[in-house]
Amino acid sequence: MNDLFHFDVVVIGAGHAGCEAALAAASMGAATCLVTMDMNKIAQMSCNPAVGGIAKGQIVREVDALGGGMGIVTDATAIQFRMLNRSKGPAMWSPRAQCDRARFIETWRRLLEHTPNLYIWQDEATEILTSGGRVCGVRTLWGAELKAGTVVVTAGTFLRGLMHVGRQKVPGGRCAEPAAAYLTASLESLGLASARMKTGTPVRIDKRTVNLDEMTEQPGETDFHRFSFISEGRCLPQLPCWTCETNAEVHEVLRGGLADSPLYNGQIQSIGPRYCPSIETKLVTFPDRDSHPLFLEPEGTDTNELYLNGFSSSLPMDVQIEALRRIPCFRNARVYRPGYAIEYDFFPPTQLRHTLETKAVKGLFLAGQVNGTTGYEEAAGQGIVAGINAALTCGDGGEFTLQRDEAYIGVLIDDLVTKGVDEPYRMFTSRAEYRILLRQDNADMRLTPYAECYGLASDRRKKLFHHKKEEVARLIDFCKTYPVKAARLNGFLESVGTTPLSGGTRIFDLINRPQLSLNNLATQIADLHSCMEAIAVQRDETVEAAEIEMKYHGYIARERALAEKMQRLETIRIAGHFDYEAITQLSTEARQKLSTIRPETLAQASRIPGVSPSDISVLLILMGR
Questions:
Q1: pLDDT tens figures, 408-429
Q2: Do residues 469 and 576 both lie within one domain?
Q3: What is the DSSP letter of 371?
Q4: Which residue, 130, 280, 356, 518, could crosslink 386 as a Cys pair with Cβ 3.0–4.6 Å?
């Protein structure tokens, strides 16, 4: 029987980080055990049943390019898709999909249960087992000892989770689900410091009781865009969302309940998310606002349950419902459950290396909300990196990390381990200094070579990737060499509102005009049309990728040169070189921060708050540079 409990990798928690970590480790050949308290809640979407959004969509595309599952599952269960920020440049385009919550769980579970080397154990992890300063397994509530060379903790909001509705407090990691009561103490005993954070979720409404005809309908998009580079599109019925607004009467009711709000009566002391505030926080932060937008979103194709985005709250349930009914379209609304806040333990991520392995214990990795982040996408990005490194650690060794100019995932992890968090971390395009390089359209070009290297790319993924890469290069080369005469195109150019040509040019030089695209030029240039038609699969995606590369080639080249210049500091490794407390030339704050975080490279040290350029100069001098 003991043979059943010997693994290479044990992953604790089957949320979005845990699913990606387990899938990656098992796909790399590591015998992997995924521990979850409820197999029916694998990859549960605890809050909004949506994937993607500003910068988050880029992360999902990156996870997919690395061979992860979130993009594939999202496309299979999407009930509304939109590409956000289309009015801006392609560096800002961000895919987002509303998903069928129940089918999302079913699809992820089916994917995991049919993954070789991956086994699921339903139980609660209570203790991390170590020997000689490194992990050797996990003990569970039922007394099972799961032996493993590496452990990945992805416990989400379950570590000593406590839910709040008004003055009512109920232990739990999610509505109607128990908290994990013991694991925090085990991690603390290994030398990891913990703290508390807070998040929340809104009321769920019965669709049959909503006057939808009094709301503004928001349809989705039906073009070729999707999340996974290998999926064939969306298969479920596409549903609309609806929008409305709060009003002064609603705000009056909500303000009347603030005395019983756990956010303002001292009941909750922990840190909450700045970028996804509760409705009561909005009222306090923006007292002059008469209204706030709300988005009513379906939870699936076969349910009447609706999610009210923008109305997250932990006010007493009678206050929530009364305020809700002061909005005309919700005057008859009935709810399935109120909104609530949840407090949980997390571990400040400066205790981690860029591989997401803890500095305190060899072979122990942390990923997801336990690192102080919020969002399914941020969790998934950490999960796949932790899973890859866990498999590498118990295999032939080596490390997998992503740089800031390679992926939003690289920005996310570097921000976490270098700067730490003082509130739940959420990714934005503004956090990435190389966002022209880190577009959603080219995530496969950036990261699929890693998936091939680590055995995470299926045969289909490899075939589609190389086909697209070759076709993009062929199309760009055609545009660089194909001549266009002014007389041939000037009438068309004037008709679309752009300046006529004074002489001959190439398509490559013409395509950077905002009025022009490869598709509309192909209506005028037969050879271009034939070149595009020769693309056998994923034609629209390939044409778009080539067009973006050509339109923005100057900006891309400039940003790449800047990234390469900064990369020189990334190659200067300083881990283990210095006793920072003994370097009196450094500022006191720099000595303290450098001693605590122990950066791997000089570039990482330069990004630590409180470490000045003069401090970096001191380190360069001491290294003889």
A1: 999 999 999 999 998 999 999 9
A2: no
A3: G
A4: 356
